[in-house]
TrEMBL record:
It comes from Haloarchaeobius iranensis. InterPro entries: DUF2237. This is DUF2237 domain-containing protein. It comes from the Archaea. PANTHER family: SLR1628 PROTEIN. Residues 1-11 have a biased composition (Basic and acidic residues). Residues 1-24 are annotated as: Disordered.
Amino acid sequence: MSDDHDDRNVRGEPLSPCCSEPPTGYLRDGCCRHVEEDLGRHEVCAVVTQEFLEYSREQGNDLVTPRPELEFPGLHPGDRWCLCIGRWLEAKEEGVAPPVDLSATNEAVLETVEMETLEAYAAED
């Protein structure tokens, strides 16, 4: 995969920021960029739900508990966060996938997830 996706969203438009407070993304610059070094592929901008946060904690990824040493305040329902494609797909299979902000989800996601699927989970703009 190349880094030519890092500034476009799934609609082919310039990638919008996902969240700057707290800063999200592999680079912690607020954007769900495609970065070769990011093996987890934090490219899906999700609007997290309580159901998803509980599911993620059960899977061993606690996104709720603050981690000051990592400058991570913990997430609350309604927060936006760059999720790993794999975790979002797992959550989808379990019926707990959070809505996706299409304007802030990297176009590289389309290599793994069909646009129709993303549109079915689109958050309200």
